[in-house]
Specification:
- With 439 residues, the protein is α/β, with parallel strands linked by helices.
- Helices cover 48% and strands 14% of the residues.
- Helix 4 links the parallel strand 2 and strand 3.
- Helix 3 packs across helix 19, helix 9 packs antiparallel against helix 10 and helix 12 crosses helix 17.
Length: 439
């Protein structure tokens, strides 16, 4: 999306400046026509027919919302018939359909054109809706969603993120909305760190998101979110009704393995996502010089898809920016320590779960650990300043006993607490309880 707006802006600077600014506020990195496998199972073979509406195709899994959707779909499919309807603003990865059809009964990818999104952003600006809600909404897509719901007659609708709530909020079908993260708080934190010209618009978007998070609440029978700290940020008097459905980690995939260490530190994530961009710059510009004063040269890898130019500029003799890697486990294994110096953003950091599952000792910020709730000094190390992060880095690299202790305790912590099967089973019970009430 951002490349589209930049190209238009270069050719028509005066008239499209507003489009470019609005695009910066949205920042999703998320075409094909609907792909369909009509496979309506007889009612006796499943508990429910669930219509799952996503703002993005959940494959490949390079973003947190895709990861959550992918594993929830995989586990829900064991007992239910699933109809996946995923919006898409770009060409769908060729492996997406073959991978998803392994456990999803019917798949529909619904395209959203970039020009329609631009128009809808402008419309949202004048109607008071959050711009990113406008970005993901189109009348053509709404008609397609309506057709699919009418055809399949689902027992339950599961909508991921407030970005898609407009499509189904009025449907007379039991519904669950996954807030997942608190977009309003994330946007507010981002406003504090962004280029000053964007701050007023980002604050405006944060206010609209907060209003919308509250307004959409009563339209859904069930509401879920990723952690208690995130739930506490929802501005609604009945927010305690929101169920905590944490993420998990695939411990059969992310496993410890002895590998030669080429780097001292690794930071993994979608490197075009503003909180990760900020974290990468914070690490290289503020933390690393302090750590090297005490330890000497430290080799760092910044690993993840679509590195932003600000991240690319961090590359040096001792800092590698890898870009996309086919197997992210290789990035974890090649480093001694995982660091996630998050200063903005909300929600549970999947990267921490994955690193801990691979017995890589982790350092992070209080913000990132709010949702994780690991014990500082036992299961993880917490830094609340450049000096604090630097001290934790040096201690882990110098103290073998501390290194082993944090590795083992972190591994035990995520293995016991973050399990996709258990988390999705809780979501399933929530959906089934509504079916039992209505059926």
């Amino acid at each position: 999306m951002m490349n589209f707006f930049r190209d238009v802006f270069r050719k028509n600077r005066p008239s499209y400046l507003g489009f470019y600014i609005f695009a910066n506020i949205i920042y999703p990195e998320a075409v094909v026509k609907s792909e369909v496998k009509i496979n309506c199972l007889p009612p006796e073979t499943h508990n429910m027919r669930i219509f799952v509406l996503l703002p993005r195709v959940p494959y490949p899994i390079e973003k947190g919302d895709k990861l959550r959707a992918f594993h929830q779909l995989r586990h829900l499919s064991e007992n239910h018939e699933l109809i996946l309807c995923a919006l898409s603003e770009k060409k769908v990865h060729p492996d997406a359909y073959p991978e998803l059809i392994k456990f999803v009964d019917n798949i529909h990818f619904v395209p959203i054109s970039k020009m329609a999104s631009a128009v809808n952003i402008i419309r949202a600006f004048f109607t008071g809706k959050p711009l990113q809600v406008g970005y993901y909404f189109s009348e053509k897509a709404r008609r397609r969603v309506n057709e699919l719901i009418e055809f399949y007659q689902p027992d339950h609708i599961y909508a991921q993120l407030i970005r898609v709530a407009e499509y189904v909020k009025e449907k007379e079908v039991p519904k669950t909305l996954d807030y997942q993260d608190v977009f309003s708080s994330n946007m507010q934190r981002r406003a504090q760190a962004e280029f000053f010209m964007l701050r007023p618009l980002l604050r405006m978007e944060a206010t609209r998101l907060r209003r919308y998070e509250r307004a959409i609440f009563p339209f859904f029978d069930n509401k879920t979110i990723i952690s208690t700290p995130d739930r506490d940020l929802i501005d609604h008097p009945d927010k305690e009704e929101i169920e905590i459905i944490p993420n998990g980690v695939d411990t059969a995939f992310f496993t410890p393995k002895e590998t030669e260490k080429e780097y001292d530190l690794v930071f993994v994530g979608n490197m075009n996502y503003p909180p990760n961009i900020d974290g990468a710059e914070f690490l290289v510009k503020k933390i690393l010089p302090l750590a090297e004063e005490k330890y000497g040269k430290i080799k760092v890898m910044l690993s993840g898809a679509n590195p932003h130019p600000r991240v690319q500029r961090l590359a040096s003799e001792n800092v590698q920016v890898s870009g996309w890697v086919d197997d992210i486990r290789d990035s974890y294994r090649r480093a001694k320590v995982f660091i996630a110096p998050m200063r903005i953003g909300t929600g549970l950091q999947n990267k921490l779960l994955e690193a801990m599952a691979m017995k890589i000792p982790c350092i992070t910020s209080p913000l990132a650990n709010d949702a994780l709730e690991a014990v500082d000094g036992e299961e993880i190390l917490i830094g609340d300043s450049p000096e604090g992060f630097a001290e934790n880095i040096v201690n882990l690299l110098n103290d073998e006993l501390l290194y082993e202790s944090i590795s083992e305790n972190g591994y035990r912590f995520v293995s016991e607490k973050f399990d996709w099967f258990q988390a999705t089973a809780k979501l399933e019970r929530l959906m089934m309880s509504k079916k039992n009430q209505t059926g």
